[in-house]
Design goal:
Elements: E1 2-8, E2 12-19, E3 26-36, E4 39-46, E5 49-55, H1 60-65, H2 67-73, E6 81-86, E7 97-98, H3 101-109, H4 118-131, E8 136-141, H5 151-154, H6 160-164, H7 174-188, E9 196-202, E10 206-212, E11 215-219, H8 242-250, H9 254-263, H10 266-271, H11 276-284, H12 288-312, E12 317-321, H13 322-327, H14 329-336, H15 348-352, E13 372-375, H16 380-392, E14 401-407, E15 410-412, H17 415-422, E16 430-433, E17 440-449, E18 454-462, E19 469-471, H18 474-480, E20 486-487, E21 498-501, E22 506-509, E23 512-515, E24 518-521, H19 523-529, E25 536-541, E26 548-557, E27 564-568, H20 569-574, E28 581-586
Parallel strand pairs: 1-6, 6-8, 9-12, 12-13, 14-27, 15-18, 19-23, 20-23, 24-26
Antiparallel strand pairs: 1-2, 2-3, 3-4, 4-5, 7-8, 9-10, 10-11, 14-28, 15-19, 16-17, 17-18, 17-21, 21-22, 24-27, 25-26, 25-28
Helix pairs in contact: 7-16, 11-12, 12-14
Amino acid sequence: MRILVFNAGSSSVKFGVFEEREGPNHLLKATYERFDRGGCTYRLEVRGKRLEGRRPLGSVAAAVAGVPAILDEHGLSDVDAIGHRVAHGGERFTAPVRIDDGVVGAIEALVPLAPLHNPVALDVMRATRVLWPALAHVAVFDTAFHLTNPPRATTYAVPRAWRDAGLRRFGFHGTSHKYVAERAADALGEPLRELKLVSLHLGNGASACAVQLGRSIDSSMGMTPLEGLVMGTRSGDVDPGMFGFLDRSMGLTIQEIEKVLYEESGLKALAGSSDMRDIEDQAAAGDDAARQAIELYAYRARKYVGAYAAAMGGLDVLVFTGGIGENSSSMRRRICDGLGFLGLQIDADRNAAVRLEHYVAPQIQAYGSRVRVLVTETAEQLMIAKEVVRLLRRPEPVDVRIPVAVSARHVHLDRSAVAALFGEGYELTPASALRQPGHWLAEERLTLEGPKGRLERVAILGPLRDRVQVEISRTDGFALGIEAPVRDSGKLDGTPRIGLVGPAGTIDTDGVIVAARHVHTNPADAVRYGLSDGDEIEIRLGNGDREASFGATLVRVSAGAVTEMHIDTDEANAAGLDGAAEGQIVASAKAILRS
């Protein structure tokens, strides 16, 4: 399958051709940018050749109209599908979708949330549907990756009527952040589900993303791509009180202020140029305004890295991407300076020697640094191509139903905890066997004691473990007055503490989590269902109006396991389950394109 991808930004349009095959699969890539005075700069790479210069193309539409001729010239006109990057998908678009008139209308309705980006994407979409009417066109949304952000990260503290009208944080550059997170984990040879990672996408548009154990939990951009870091022409974070001030003092309307914040602010307002390459040259020549712009840009990015490290309870990996993140060694150094308290140090020589080709992801941290620091090309187009292939090759839900077990709050104890809670030498009494072989429910019960409240008669599950683990729901967390993270079983570092009260004593322990939903299965059933250990699949639960689909469900394959899905009580309530239930596996296509 050969995919043509369009990535239309606020000030540029990129396109590329990707092929589904082993080995190098980026057949062509091109960029049009700096549209002014009836022309634009142009770069094209195809079959090892590079062409660049200026073209007499004064708009994105004119550039797109010339794409079929370029493909014909290089023997690449036989494409099978077309993918489009769309900045804002709102709450409706949680995954890539085939484009039809209804989808175009829904994207157009979101233009007020992304006034610089969605209109350009729509222009490209309309043009390509005319140029290639017989092909499948797929929209891939920047916001989709961030829909895993918890309410505490997405909610503005404003009146409910405003929130009910749709005012919330979304986050952008999701396609880029998703790709670089996966690429960094692959380069390090470590599962993404075990890493706390901050991705810095630094370009004309700029954003930071906190990726905790494989999921985006926060992003610097908000309801629109205006919030967050300083950008080329966008202000980033400002005091919303400025709207009233500028109205009273300068007579500016909301529309006038908004236009300036999008188009005449950021680096352009600070230094007269939106291009960091120009600003660094100006600063080197002694321009104080350019120097201040550089310092402000680096400070804002560094502040977000520190904030996200705090939000995740630590930091394992920092990744730089985007035009500035990839190409400016001095900006990378400025951002990393001052982060030594996190155990992050970069090596000057490794930082200066970065060369990015063929999707490499070199490490630039100093030896002994606790935080790994990587630089990689954003490869948004490659990620879009992958998403298009996944969607078009996605099979229908298989007719396989598996039992669903609802896990109420419970505790796993270690030997020392049993002794402290029940007395030295005490042995727990198995009361009944659980479905998973060797696992059982104990007769004994405990009390959980948090800063706000207590939960009585909490179940204990055996056998004993090497470390205490307490599994609760989010609702339980509010009752106790603690905030437990969603984690896979056994991933307990940085989790909150709680009191356990038994008949012989009390202990204070960490290890409190909201258990991430998962499926246990055995090797034979895994083969039968086309699953592998570590896969993330989608399970459909419930019926009628309460039917719910649960994505990102981890598959655990182990010998002797009974195939069964585990969810907590909040998830069961969301799907309207009130007893024995079954879930339908929705098979997901594997990643077919390789980087």
